[in-house]
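Q: What structure does this chain adopt?
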Amino acid sequence: MYKPTKAEMMRDVRDYIFITFGLFLYSLGWAAFLLPYQITTGGTTGIGAIIYYSTGFPLQYSYFLINAVLMAFAFKILGPRFSIKTCYAIFMMTFLLGFLQKVVNGADGIPPLLVGEGQDFMACLIGATMCGIGLGVVFNCNGSTGGTDIIAAIVNKYRDITLGRMIMICDVVIILSCYFIFHDWKRVIFGFVTLFVIGFVLDYIVNSARQSVQFFIYSKEYEKIAQRIINETKRGVTILDGTGGYSKKPVKVLVVLAYKRQSVEIFRLVKDIDPDAFISQSSVIGVYGEGFDKIKVK
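A:
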């Protein structure tokens, strides 16, 4: 049975801390800015908001029930580590959504209009930005808030489609459905504005680390390093024969092409195996082929 190292356990602890912080931002964006102004967007949170606006059923409970069903699919496809973090995120966000609503609403239970009466658009922008930042932090730690995030993460695992774009595609129908509750196209427009802002901010945070990079790794433990890179990052490794210019001794050089967001993971596993390894990282303009962008030439 595999026993995680202390370093791996500390990384997981740090991931959970950042996931909690991201969930806090996301929940606060809903509790303080979106719910008081009756703004909805996509995802299971958006579905829960629509249910809340029409029936008064608490948002956090409908969010939890829908995600409980979706998690059954995520466990098999995304693996236990993703599912464990997502389960944690779902339980934590269910708690935070309820807790922050009580904090924001106060003793009377009425949501205050923090940015003023009639400032729906400003509340929409602020709330969506907070939600986008929160989602970005959660996704960067290999977590998810559930719902269409699970669907997007599944598609992103097999296809080269950005997370924000996939979520946007999944959520359009949810936003359009709010028209049947409010019979007001302004609410639909606000929902789309919220969706686009969340998608833009999410893409900016997640895909700022999506550019491709190239590694040259020099280490006596090149076989172990190569195997772990292949197994854990799902990236190919090319082993080159070289000769030291000074020592004149033969050396093995690992060449790895990966997304920039995988850089930290690659550095971590190399350090775990050989802290004295020599690593060169450089940005590349484009990488085309299996696992990256398709070659598009007429």
